[in-house]
Amino acid sequence: MAEYSVRYAQTDIITFAPWVLVIVFRQKTQVLAILLAIGGVIGIFFKPMLGKAIDKVGERFILSAEAVVLVFVCLGYGYSREIFSETAALFVAFACYVLDQLLMSVSMARATYLQKIAVVPEDVAQTLTMGVTIDHALSISIALLGGFLW
Predict the structure, then answer these.
(1) Residues 41-62, buried b or exposed e (16+ Cβ, 10 A)?
(2) Tens of pLDDT along 93-146?
(3) Which of 5, 111, 122, 137 is the most exposed place for a label (fewest CB within 10 A)?
């Protein structure tokens, strides 16, 4: 995978995951559609449970847990072929893809946390938008740096 890293360093997780499945694991795009459907069905049950978890344990815990899970998702994408057999690595990548979809739901924890701490309620939407912008800028920069280091 090292030969692809610099050329595709400017991708974020939304484009990196399909790239890994299609280019590295040689999966058809129909597989992505099936995984998206699976993630959507699981999300029907996951999102209400996530909302209850946010109410019970708080946004900070959920956001911290998301960061930890995201590290393992990225490690799963990057190293599953080196650790597992080809078939097992493929299923690890499938699981990472679905988990990655579910992690997008955690944005509700960001929104509710920001609403709690915002001094001016009108600033919430602008702050969330700026957060997404900074997140994308950092993810591209870190991917580019990682590609050069690799």
Answers:
(1) eebeebeeebeebbeeeebeeb
(2) 999 999 999 998 998 898 899 889 888 888 888 888 888 888 778 878 887 887
(3) 122
Instruction: In whole angstroms, give the CA distance from residue 83 to residue 135.
Output: 29
Nearest CA among 12, 116, 10 for reference residue 63? 116
**What pLDDT does 14 receive?**
59
Sequence-separated (6 or more) residues with CB below 8 Å from residue 32 = 18, 21, 22, 97
Give Cα separations from 99 to 7, 39, 106 (angstroms): 26, 8, 11
pLDDT digits 0-9 by tens, 8-51: 333 344 577 888 888 889 999 899 999 999 999 999 999 999 99
How many CB atoms within 10 Å of residue 20?
A: 23
Tokens of 115: 């609403």
Q: What tokens does 133 get? A: 């912008």
End-to-end CA distance of the chain: 10
